[in-house]
Amino acid sequence: MEDVVDTYFNNTIKTIMAFNWIRSSFPQADLILFHDDDYHVQYVKLASYIRERARAHHSDICIGSLAVNAPPYREKHDRWYVTYDDYPYNVFPPYLGGGAFVVSSDVARKFQLAFPFIRYLGIDDVYLGIVAKKLYISPKNESILDTISVDTLAKECSHDAEKLVMENCTLAITKREITALRDKMEKYMKERNIENAQFIDHYKNNTLKTVMAFSWAVEKCNNVDLL
């Protein structure tokens, strides 16, 4: 194991360590689940579902909550700030949110071999997306691994052990409700051909400002359970 400080911004290093450890310790494993320690996972149901899916596709499994066309954060005060030197493009490749995802053993092996040759990025889930693109692996969206999906079997919950065991996952519920409300508001704006930035800061435009506030909160404060 590498000698590394256990901090959030070393998550990519820890993810690489996890791949190396799994490949060396459990070479016989054909499917591998990664998830954060604050996630409540219904392991039996999830294993059954993934096994059933794997019967049709034995290889190239790389599934989770898919992010598409996500732009890098370019403002220095952002938690996930990325410089142009670190990543010069305007959009990240498709990637799976790091909260919970599953890969098959062949994908894990390809990742492990590729890590030393692909430039490091401190955002672990984005880094895996970059590696996947280099390897011509296409991550797929899977609702049962999406914390805000009503069908999820793996949802963001709590670092509090009691809440985690009791599946008291207010964070996932709040995110789901906020995201649903934001989507409805954005649909409303799109139907009326309204651009967020093109309006006068006036009392009668408070609805537009509220929509912007929800969008900003979901994007910038996704670790907050109450707003």
Tell me what the CATH architecture of the largest domain is.
Alpha-Beta Complex
Give the helices and strands as they follow along the chain: HEEHEEHHEEHHH
Strand content: 5-15%
Q: Structural class from helices and strands?
A: alpha+beta
Number of domains: 2
What is the straight-line distance between the termini? 40 Å
The CATH class of the largest domain, by name, is: Alpha Beta
Shape: globular
If you compute it from the alpha carbons, what radius of gyration comes out, rounded to the nearest whole angstrom? 19 Å
Q: Please mark out the parts with pLDDT under 50 across 5 or more consecutive residues, or reply none.
A: none
Number of helices: 7
Averaging pLDDT over every residue, what do you get? Answer: 81
Question: What does this molecule look like?
Answer:
- Helices cover 41% and strands 13% of the residues.
- It is an alpha+beta fold and 227 residues long.
- The strands form two sheets. It has a four-stranded mixed β-sheet. A two-stranded antiparallel ribbon has the order 2-6.
- Helix 1 crosses helix 3 (105-114) and helix 6 crosses helix 7.
- The protein starts with 10 loop residues before the first helix and ends in a 7-residue tail after the last helix.
- Its main location: Golgi.
- Belongs to the glycosyltransferase 31 family.
